[in-house]
Amino acid sequence: MTGKGGTGKTTVAAALALALAAGGRRTLLVEVEGRQGVAQLFGTPPLPYEERRITAAAGGGEVRVLAIDAEEALLEYLEMFYRLGAAGRALRRLGAIDFATTVAPGVRDVLLTGKVKEATTRTSGGHRVYDAVVLDAPPTGRIGRFLNVTAETAKLAKVGPIKTQSDGVQALLRSPMTAVHVVTLLEEMPVQETVDAIEELTRLRIPVGHVIVNEAQVPLASVGKVTQAELKRGLSAAGLPTDRATVTGLYTEVKNYLTRQELEDSLRTDLAELGRPVLELPLLSGGVDREGLDLLAAALLAGPTP
Where is the ArsA/GET3 Anion-transporting ATPase-like domain positioned along the sequence (predicted)? Predict the structure, then answer.
């Protein structure tokens, strides 16, 4: 799940995890940006670097969550592939781990995507541990670089564990198992970033799923023009004040609303031209709580309106 900052991609990612867990399935919701946004959504303390159950889903399913810490992931990587558990901890005390994950963002992204790949493909008793993994990924401005970093790493590492892991992540990200959904608002900048991100992901051969319009509102009016005389008659019929200030103020609000509606219709056309399924999620007037997440999950399960 990606989207311009402020579009609600973390909220939509959590709702998708709930939707995919419905009916007795198990999903893993992963965040990689260190913001602890998932913990805030579900009202829990900051999440440690471990997979843990965070909530139940409809029909007996469950959602687990993992907040990946780049330093911990590097220590895990050193132990797994090089048996450097003690040495890795010593490097951490010297500050080398922080240096590697902060100064070299490419290394950080390889660790993050590698951990997601491991969770996605992990099996137990011959079956995958998770029915689905939902990644709350970086925003659209960085999504291409984040998901393609393993391809660049693979060019540098010709053999060994890094090469093997990079190849495995590349294969997963470009397989039918993966779909990058892009969250947007019906505003010009988020829509433009959505267009740019989809073009970039397509160029990188990373599968794109749905365009998800968040916080969509049902239009209150469909007329193209309203006159002050019509508003005055309507106010009078409703038994409301019809003085000049009231009519003029209402007229200004109606004009602004219709202008905004015209812009949103134009942006919907731009999104439709991308050739991807578009799904609209309602604005949660009461704020985002568990009930709101369930409403969004139900809308995601219903899919796009024909």
Answer: 1-155
